[in-house]
Specification:
About 45% of the residues lie in helices and about 15% in strands. The protein is of the alpha/beta class and about 300 residues long. This is MoxR family ATPase.
Length: about 300
Amino acid sequence: MNKKIEDIVSEVKKVVIGKDEIIEKVLMAILAGGHILLEDVPGVGKTTLALTFSKVLGLDYKRMQFTPDSVPSDITGFSVYNKNSGEFQYMEGCAMTNLLLADEINRASSKTQSALLEVMEEGKITVDGVTRTVEKPFVVIATQNPTGWIGTQSLPNSQLDRFMIRLNMGYPDMNNLIEIMKDRHHENPLDKVKHVINKNELINLQELAGNIYVSDEIYEYISKLVEKTREHELIKLGISPRGALAICKMAKAKAMLGGRDYVVPQDVQYIFKDVCSHRIIVESRSMINEVNTDEIMKEIIESVENE
């Protein structure tokens, strides 16, 4: 593993305890230039995870709490008339940052979600006909409560597809919970987090990840997996070309964390579920038969391996 990457992971682990796999996958998505969706109940450390990464990576950080009355201008910014200059002055929205924590995104209206969608996809903001580019690197870590909670609504598939991965934090086990309580007895461990790299160094790491070698055999392997999602009897909507590109980018990042400059099939398998589970639409009979998306993803991987 690259020394800088090793230091980043080590520093984040000091604050986010017992979630090593989650930490590594979030870092992979950041190195791959993607956005992260964290779906879980409140209080399991989603906000702490985002804040820790912003400090360790030396990124400007903003947080927006999404509510039903949130409006697009909260994200994009707006123009205000300055009577002294006689001109309209642009006031930045929360998206003008490096790392944006979009908290409880599925509580906002469709119009507000669409405003975030443009920034995530294009890396640009348009206000009053003027387009502004968001500073790089730009990462959105969005959280959402489980569907069905009061005040929530399902994100449209078009927006889900913009997130490179979807992860579940989950509750810590008993030993980790005890360690968390002891760790925060006298002070907040976030106050001791060290700055490991800066923005330019992160951009360089992203470029290195993008240059990881992918053989024709790996491209074919990814294509077969994607094709299987479109043919599976329990899947109504399979993986799009955007999803296939996300698999490829995440596999490159996984190879980089593994200390390799080339992708192997195990890299693809490791990230396949996290990249694909939120992009597919399953048939209703899969719910009746109590077959979840994780089981379907595992079955697809095994079916391609056995061909």
